[in-house]
């Protein structure tokens, strides 16, 4: 909906420390008849595992799972990041969970792909923060046959994209530390 490919490609880069200067961000490149994922200027085959949706919301819970993925010779982990955890109060972003996921993935020699859970997942609106769920004026509900769910107008949808853009601020990582670029929203 908001172009998840850039988030995927951007998220794939950070978790493993690089030995040389920071190279181009991961990208898709046509080579002959194939389109390949290029990471650190070389084709990269994702051998990935996935954290359960809620597993990535707690670093103590996620870490042993990352250790098992690494022990099974996987090179990539997919972790969900919910809007409610990134922006618990409106315009107040908290990246501590994402920073921790990056560090933990790096410590297990795994690449990290972030899966953004904004307003919807599996047909229900579980992941918006409480301040969205309780503001019926700005974020009205629609009724389905089985439940009341969030329905977003175009201005609301723009608002939903802001935390994802904030997440994209995590732009590059060197071998020593994460470098976070702050972009005004």
SSE blueprint:
Blueprint: H1 4-12, E1 27-31, E2 34-39, E3 42-43, E4 48-50, H2 59-71, E5 76-82, H3 83-86, H4 96-107, E6 111-117, H5 130-133, E7 141-143, E8 148-150, H6 154-167, E9 172-173, E10 178-179
Parallel strand pairs: 4-5, 5-6
Antiparallel strand pairs: 1-2, 2-3, 7-8, 9-10
Question: Would you write up a description of this structure?
Answer:
The longest helix has 14 residues, at 154-167. The chain is of the alpha/beta class. Helix 2 runs parallel beside helix 4 (96-107). The chain contains 6 helices and 10 strands. It has a single domain, classed as TIM Barrel, CATH 3.20.20.80. The strands form 4 sheets. The protein has a 3-stranded antiparallel β-sheet, with no helix packed on it. The chain has a 3-stranded parallel β-sheet with strand order 4-5-6. A two-stranded antiparallel sheet has the order 7-8. Strand 4 (48-50), helix 2 and strand 5 form a beta-alpha-beta unit.
**Residue windows where pLDDT falls under 50 for at least 5 positions:** 1-11, 13-21, 171-185
Distance between the termini: 19 Å
Overall average residue pLDDT: 74
Number of strands: 10
Number of helices: 6
Q: Helical amount among residues, as a percent range? A: 25-40%
Helix and strand composition category:
alpha/beta
**Main sheet characteristics:** 3 strands, antiparallel
What radius of gyration results from the CA coordinates? 18 Å
- At CATH level 3, the topology is TIM Barrel
The helix/strand order is: HEEEEHEHHEHEEHEE
């Amino acid at each position: 909906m908001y172009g998840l490919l850039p988030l995927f490609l951007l998220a794939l880069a950070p978790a493993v420390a690089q030995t040389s200067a920071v190279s181009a961000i991961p990208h898709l490149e046509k080579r002959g008849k194939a389109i390949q994922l290029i990471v650190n200027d070389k084709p990269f085959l994702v051998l990935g595992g996935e954290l359960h949706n809620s597993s990535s919301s707690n670093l103590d819970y996620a870490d042993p799972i990352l250790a098992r993925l690494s022990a099974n010779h996987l090179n990539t982990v997919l972790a969900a990041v919910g809007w409610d955890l990134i922006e618990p109060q409106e315009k107040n972003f908290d990246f501590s969970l994402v920073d921790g996921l990056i560090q933990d993935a790096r410590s297990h020699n795994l690449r990290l792909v972030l899966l953004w859970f904004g307003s919807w997942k599996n047909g229900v609106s579980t992941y918006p923060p409480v301040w969205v769920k309780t503001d019926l004026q700005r974020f009205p509900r629609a009724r389905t046959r089985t439940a009341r769910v969030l329905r977003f107008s175009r201005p609301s949808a723009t608002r939903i994209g802001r935390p994802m853009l904030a997440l994209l601020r995590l732009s590059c990582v060197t071998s020593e530390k994460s470098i976070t670029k702050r972009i005004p929203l």
